[in-house]
Amino acid sequence: MTTVVAQQHTGAPIIERIAGEFARQFSTSENGQPSLIADLRLRALEELQRLGIPTVRHEEWKYTNLFPLLAKGFTHVVGGAVQPSALENMTAPLQRWGDVVAMYNGRFVGSRDDGQVLLSLASALAADTALCARIGSLASFDDKAIVAWNTAFLNDGVVLRVPANTTLERPIVVASVLDAREHNVVVHERHFVEVGSGGFAQLVLVQRALGDGESLLNQVLEGWVGESARLVIVVVQDGPPRSHALTTHTIELAKEARVEMITVSIGGGFVRNMPEVRLSGSHADAHLYGLTLADGTMLVDHHTAVEHRVPHCTSNQLYKAILDGRATGVFNGKICVYPDAQKTSAYQANRNIVLSRRATIDAKPQLEIYANDVRCTHGCTVGRLDDEAMFYLRSRGLSKAEAEALLLTAFAEEVTTTIPISPVRDDINATIEHLLHADELA
Amino acid sequence: MSERVESTDILDQLTSEDYQYKYGFESPIEEEIVPPGLDETIIRMISEKKGEPEWMLQWRLQAFRYWQQMKEPHWANVRYSPIDYQAISYYAAPKRSGGPKSLEDVDPELRRTFEKLGIPLHEQELLAGVAVDAVLDSVSVATTFREKLRSLGIIFCSMSEAIREHPDLVRKYLGTVVPPNDNFFAALNSAVFSDGSFCYVPPGVRCPIELSTYFRINARNTGQFERTLIIADEGAYVSYLEGCTAPMRDENQLHAAVVELVALAGAEIKYSTVQNWYPGDKEGRGGIYNFVTKRGVCLGDSSKISWTQVETGSAITWKYPSVILKGDNSVGEFYSVAVTNNRQQADTGTKMTHIGRNTRSRIVSKGISAGYSNNSYRGLVRINPSADGARNFSQCDSLLIGDKCGAHTFPYIEVANPTAIVEHEATTSKIGEDILFYCNQRGIDTETAVALIINGYAREVLSKLPLEFAVEAQKLLAISLEGSVG
Question: Which among B402, B418, B426 is the nearest to A355, CB-wise?
Fold first, then answer.
């Protein structure tokens, strides 16, 4: 009994602040957005108030304590004035990855809104009531405090609609710029992706921090991949320790659709990714890959959920982590096979290397299976570099540092090779090699 | 050839349409039962009935106070209607005056009960080579083989006797592995436990026979709360078997036991369980709620604790035999076969906590679910920062028979030492059609083929059981899955 009371005590002031912030932002003006959304926001806030901030006593948050992060005190911000040149400087290097869309403090900026394929969520919602009804239908906030928090502050984001049988030649790069020059900020972004049947799109999500304050991005993406369509999402988290992220990317696959989601967490302070894939059409195929490279006091949590809802689907997950310093790595991978989802084939692998005495890894691969004609496996390992491989390299004249760097790079690049966008892959590999000092090798 | 006979034997039982739970009888023994409900008076009454010293009573009362503060855990992947803890009678004992001095003192009806269960309670059956401490409902009724064990310095007796005669040992170790405030059910057990087995093996002694306890819930509306404490002193070895049955009833009965194992330096404890509590009928009515806390501690260097369990009974199983690997170079093992059929639910697994250096643990868990049952493996492997060179290997396989059952895996892996190596793998699948085809094609019908395949699947665990149990366990496996193949 006493613990419950204590729990409420720690979370209550934060929820109170959030509710106050909500009242300040939305009671004065509704920003011209339809009442459907206003209603959604209100329900989300109520759910958040009901749930409270999840503590480590919550099974889904057992290894990830939100309180030290939230204790930093973040101010909710939306948009604001920014010098175009400052934004330009930040996003220019990303041009080689694809067409860049900048989000400034959660507000769609620039002139990329073409009214058809790529739109700002705020303008799309104003024009399209059908879209309003679909928001939240995939990323439900029931029992999910972080999604509820995001939905309560739903404002803007990117809407990407790929028509049937259309291939987007260039990847879309969404650069989330968080401006923490004045104070610590929390920013909520809501993205909406729909790939029509036979379509193909590639999306890169990247976060950039401005200023010396702490910034927290709470990003929710809802994506529908149509029949025989393909969607690639690359999430690049390479920010400084003062930039934090909570991401919820929920994708639903139709018949024969395919999604590839690659999350590279090689920077940032507190990172929690919650990719969720629903295989709702037969022969759908999901691939989730993740890499954690953590040092210092970083915390990276990959919390995946793959739901096999219909027969004849396949899924594959590979998550790897290298942990140094006082870093914490968390992996929670859930595979759920619904009743009657026969002929499911699900695979999940989690491999971790711990380099330092003060680094920790907590892994919880999890299978929930309600159908019998399935093949589901998961494997999880935690260890150090293979002694024999080290010996092999040392015997060929490599120094200890060189041999380590080489093996670690090889370990990490098993994940990055799955990135189908070559400029992104090359840049990330270069960063990884730099972080692992592999670029210093002769 | 004998193997062949064996398997047709199983088949006969398999094919008989309505196989009855073999141990479902109720013995008409006069019992002394305290009124249902739980408060301090009941605890005082239990303690008084057992003639316990004051410290034991205080220990129970403290546990009861913890229990009152605690809430029933609901994180396990099982569903059941709420338990009314005030409707349970916390003490039921066969009526008698004084403790049994010899076998002649034991109620003949009681002896017949145990004969039905096939327990070699009689000294004549010494040849079976098993020393048995039998616990009916709450009280230990007889312990065989006492003399032989005593000559080796081994103490094997009921818990109440141990409290009376070896209070120093009991006080030293009771509650050190599973503290009274460990969890809700352990607290409840600590408050009301009525009996159980106690075993102490002195330094350097290798217990020559398998020790065994047989648990049986007989009376209606009672719970069974036994407490087992096994201590293997330096360099000692003991192998311990535990079996359980209960009559068939429509209502659910609660079984909340606590088992504590302590292995000092160089000692080895092997603990085997064949759990066959009444699982309820096909619609899920009745059956035992089996909420058990079992934990061993490898206190000294190079000690070893090994858990082997075959779980086929109980409506609900909530059980995680675990090992705390405290001594350097100590070893923990967990081998489990859990079978659920009809509406049974099992959430079982293990916890391996590595503290000492070069500690090793191995987990092999085989789940089989059939009918409408749900079978979950839940395990924790924790490597503390001090556990240099720790090593763990876990393997959990699940087999699904029928499309209405569920198999789940929840392994928790927590590593805080860079020199540790932890491996975990899990698979879930059904019996391969190609394997069945292979058997069919060689003239083995499907039902036999399934029994064969399951036997092979579980062999890795069954082979760890002492011989006496291995045969029983194999039969149990086949029986539990009766009617689920089709």
Answer: B418
